[in-house]
Amino acid sequence: MSRIVLGLALASPIFVLGTLTSAATAADSSLTTISATEFQVPTPGAQPLTTLPTTSELIAQNRRTAAPMPSVAELESGPVIAPAASQPQERSLGIQRNLPQVTSVNQLSDVRPTDWAYQALASLVEKYGCIAGYPDGTFRGNRAATRYELAAALNACLDVISDRFATKEDLATLQKLMQEFANELALVKGRVTNLEGRVANLEATQFATITKLSATVIFNVSDVLTNDRAVAPGLINPGLTVDDNPVVNQRTRINFDTSFYGKDRLRLRLQSANIVSYAGLTGTNMGRLGYDGTSANAFTLQKGFYSFPVATRGFMVLDFVGGEFNDNVFTFNPLLQSGDTGALSRFGRFNPIYRAGNAAAAAGVTFKYDVVQNKERGTGVTLNVGYLAPTSGNPFRNARNPGGFNNAVGNTNGFFNGAYAALAQVDVRPVKNVALGLTYVRSFGLDPFGGTGSTGNFSAANPTRIGFANSTADTLGFQFTYRPIQKFNIAGWVGYSSVNGVQNNFDYPTRANSAEVLNWAVTLASPDLWNKGDVLGFIFGQPPQTISLSNTFVANLPAPLPAAPVSRTAFNSFHLEGFYRFAVMPNISITPGIIAIINPNSNSNNDPIVVGAVRTTFSF
């Protein structure tokens, strides 16, 4: 019986506690056993037991000790305290204290892996470190043990456990903290419960699992603050005035963004607008707002594209309606480029050469590749190439004037036998906060500057010409942006285009025009001046205007058309703009500002045109 009790005691410190309730069996019949319900575990604190006496020593000790065993009532009232006479007897039994703790069960010479309690003893020695042996390096596991010896062993194991785990004092401290922060814990629990309910409601009522809905609404209040209307270059205003009134109009965009694997995006944008362009009212494109356009308040599919990464450094955008280069490549005017929250004017957002190819039906592809990239330093080199075709959806190859592009019969320019624009750009970021860009655009049948320059650039020299319908343009642009401090950014650009008329209009001979068109600008922006999200912006530059024009006679035409080449130079239109964007709330901003055009249409006979606007933008 003693072997069984001792083996179970060695199984674990927790099982030792249960073993004490059964008591060790003595070798003499005069020893009394106590049931499990009668025994109380003594308070830990005794020194660890390191030696075990023999059975004969236990018998001799019991006979020499006349002290009676404690009663059940005494046991229940508190811990058992050994009598004073037991102290010298303990020494006489050869119990050695403060022996070196063994670290491995293999240090006990009489313990074998085949012993039935080997694993339990190994756990107590190696895992808990609360069992030692006799001085001679033995354990003597077959000998009986007294209650005192078991209590000492149990106390040693409990001391180890209390050092590794929370003590009663720790638990009491934790309980006290829970009581002190009961209100805060209840508040947190309530918030978590509320969040769980909201999440469950969102999951039950969400629009779609892979599609995100966002929208932007612009409320615009604007007016032309001057009276005279601009006329074409070389003409004198015969008294035309601007007959207008302040307007309040809107543009609403609803975006559906779908991602199939996290890094791609399919966007469909619906737009409703009634912001009429000021070009017709003022007689020039130079005073247009950067967010004008109208669909008579009807919702239409304004944009659709799919973008996705290619390998680790490439990125591709497939436009199938409403393609724009300025949406697909970096335009080097980060604080002012947005039509929702950036510059108020169309010209002030970015270099107009990015607008070549922009049209409601434009489709195409743009590819970007990071040749060199160092995200930690903010440096790198990126190559961009793109192609847009506004008439890609028209199947009539020989149709006259399909959609306002490519008037000539049988024209076979571009991949889709019509108007197009092809772009190549290199972005260079030599140091942090500095970016430089060099851009080349080849276009046919399109305004190379997207309706931002003079109206009727060629009208004075050639009244029969209709815009850029049959012209090719080779355009170069240089852009930069520099942010020396957090609250100041300077950006700018210059764009030069060589435009050549390559075909006649409406199937009868006329002259071919060759023109040089130039534009440039410098922009200053200071973000977060008053509140976070505010922007103060200034723009000064020259909108696109013809600086040189030559007309070449290509067929025998009746008088009064001249046969000799004609050339002229103009360089006198300037754009001034100032605005301040107030970030009223994270999703609401108000941007009042003034746009002034000096010598509109490159005609010094025109008086300045001033447009005032207040744009309120809601985004959600």
UniProtKB/TrEMBL annotation:
Residues 1-26 form the signal peptide. InterPro entries: Carb-sel_porin_OprB, Cell_Envelope_Struct_Comp, Por_som-like, SLH_dom. Pfam families: OprB, SLH. The keyword Signal applies. One of its GO terms (cellular component) is membrane. Residues 104-168 form the SLH domain. GO terms for biological process: carbohydrate transport. It comes from the Bacteria. Belongs to the OprB family. Keywords: Signal. GO terms for molecular function: porin activity. The keyword Signal applies. This is Porin.
